[in-house]
Amino acid sequence: MAMAMSDSGASRLRRQLESGGFEARLYVKQLSQQSDGDRDLQEHRQRIQALAEETAQNLKRNVYQNYRQFIETAREISYLESEMYQLSHLLTEQKSSLESIPLTLLPAAAAAGAAAASGGEEGGGGAGGRDHLRGQAGFFPSPGGASRDSSGPGEEGKQRTLTTLLEKVEGCRHLLETPGQYLVYNGDLVEYEADHMAQLQRVHGFLMNDCLLVATWLPQRRGMYRYNALYPLDGLAVVNVKDNPPMKDMFKLLMFPESRIFQAENAKIKREWLEVLEETKRALSEKRRRGQEEAAAPRGPPQVTSKAGNPFEDEDDGEPAVPEAEEEKVDLSVEWIQELPEDLDVCIAQRDFEGAVDLLDKLNRYLEDKPSPPPVKELRARVDERVRQLTEVLVFELSPDRSLRGGPKATRRAVSQLIRLGQCTKACELFLRNRAAAVHTAIRQLRIEGATLLYIHKLCHVFFTSLLETAREFETDFAGTDSGCYSAFVVWARSAMGMFVDAFSKQVFDSKESLSTAAECVKVAKEHCQQLGDIGLDLTFIIHALLVKDIQGALHSYKEIIIEATKHRNSEEMWRRMNLMTPEALGKLKEEMKSCGVGNFEQYTGDDCWVNLSYTVVAFTKQTMGFLEEALKLYFPELHMVLLESLVEIILVAVQHVDYSLRCEQDPEKKAFIRQNASFLYETVLPVVEKRFEEGVGKPAKQLQDLRNASRLMRVNPESTTSVV
Question: What is the pLDDT of residue 205?
C-alpha cells in the first residue's frame, strides 16, 4: 500500500515537473508554504533527486539504444546502396550493349551483345575490370578464398606489398607483426569536420583485411605519411553521405563514440571505397564465424602411425615418436561470449563499471587453464580493446579535472575497479593525485580572516581532516595490495604537508606576527598533527623539519627586538626607584612577576606604591620571561641551540649594563641601589630562567650555569674594572 502511494506520488511529481507551464520559483514558493518543516523539504528534495537520477539513467540507456540502432540502420542502408550501385551499373552495360546492335542484324544480336559486354569489361568501366585489377594488385579478397589465391599473388606477395606501402608510414611498424594481415585497398582522401563541414587535412587510407589505417600527409616529405589512427573493422560502420554541392563524393565512418567524414577524389573512387569496405567486413565476419565453428566442432580420434611401417627409421635416433596430442578446443559459441564485446560497450556507455569488470572476470575464469588457439587470441584482442577503453574512462573519473566534491569516498568506485583490472599502481597514483588537487583547492578556497589565529584554526581543521579521511579511505581501498602503495602514500603525505606549511608560513611568519601569536599557531598545528597518530601516521617530525627555518627566523627577529629595547632603556637609565602611584598598579605588577616565576617579589616592594628596583630591570625581567615562555611553546630538539644562544645574548645585554654601571657609578647611594638591582638580577631572575628552561626542555643548560657562575665572580669583586664578558 505504501509502495503504491509512493509510486503514485512519484508519477504525480513527474507530471507536474514535465508540464508546459511549470515555473520553478513559484513551485518552490508553494512548497515552502505547504511544508511543515525542514524534514518535509528534505524528503521532497530526495524524491526530486531520485527522479533526476532515474531520468538520467533512462536518457543514457535510450541514447545508447538509439546509437546502436543507428549503426545497424546505417549498415543496412550501405548494403542496399551497394546493391543499387551494382544494379545500376549492370543496367547501364545492358543498355549500351543493346544500343550497339544494328536493327538489320537481328539474327546476330546475341553474339554482338556478348562481344559488346566483353568490350565493356576490358575497357575498365565495369565491376569485373575493377575486380580484375584488385586481384592483380592483391587488393581485393574474394569470398571463396581459393579463387583469390589462384588469381592473385600468394601470401608472401601480399605481405611484401603491405610492407612496401607501410614503409612510407611513420609509426606503424607494429602492424606488420600481425600474422595473416595483408593490404586490400588504399587511396587518398580529404577529411572534413563533422559539424561545420570545414576541410581538416589530407589523409591516405590503408584498408587491411581486418582493420583500416588512416595516415596524414607529410608536406615536407613527398610521398611519406604519419600514422593517425587504426580502426578494427568489426567495430566500424560505413555510411554513404548524400551529395549536397559543393559537398559531394563523401562517406562517413562511425566508430563508437566518434565519427569521421572523408571525401574521395570522384564518384567512382567513392563507390569503390564503399564496396570494398563492406565486402571486406563481410569476408572478415565469415572468416571468424568459420573459425569459431571449426574450433567448436569435435575432432575424430588421432591417427597413430605405426613405427613398423617405416623400414628406414633408425630405432636409435632420439626418443621414440609420440603421437601428437589433439589440441583441446575451446567452445566460444556460448551466447554470452558471443555478445561479450557488445555487452562491454553497453556497460561502458552506461557507466556500469562494476558490471564490465564482472564480465571480464567471468571470461578470465572461463578461459583459465585453457589453450589459446587463434579464435581465443582474436577474442582476447577484441576484449583487450574494451579493457583499454574502460581503463581510460576510469582514469578520467579520477582525474583532477572532474568535480572534487564528495570527499575521498567519491573515488572508491573507480579505484576499486582499477584494482580489479590489475592496475593497482595506476589507481594509487591517480587517487593520490586527485586528493592532492582536492586538498589544494580546499586550502585555496579558505577566506583569509583578519585574525591570524582564527584562519590557522580553519586551515588546520580543513587540511588535517582531509588528510585523515584520505588515509582512512586509502587503507580501505588498498588493503591487501602491494605494500609499495603505502610507501607512495607516505611520500604523498610529505608533499601534502609541504603544501600546508607553505600556506601556514605565508600567513604566520611572512606577515611578521608577534612571537606569541606564532607560538599559538604552531601549537594548534602540532595538536592537529598528533591526531593522525590514531591511525598510526606520525608526521610530527615532518612538520618540525618544514617549520624549523621559519621558527629560527622568528626567534632571531624577536631576540633582536628585545636587545634593541633593552639597549634603549639602558641608555636612559637614571637608577631610580619605581613609583607606581596606585595600589592597583602595584598589585598588577606583583601578579605579573608571580606569573613570570618570581615568587619573592614582595621583599623588593617598599612603602606605599614604591618598588625598590629600577624600571629597566623590571621591564627586562618581564620581557625575557615572556620570550622564554613563548619560545618553549615553539621548542623541539632542532631548536635547542638557537633558543639557548638567544637567551644568553639577551641576558648578557642586561648583565653587562649592570656591571658597567656598578664600576662607573661614584655616588654611594646610587651604587648601593645598583647593587640591589644586580642582586635581584643574579640571585632571582637568572635561577628562574635556568629552572624554567630545564622544565621546558627536559635537561639543564650548561651555558646558563656558566653565566650565573661568572656573575658570582663579579659580585665577589665588585670594584674590579674588568668585564665579565
Answer: 92
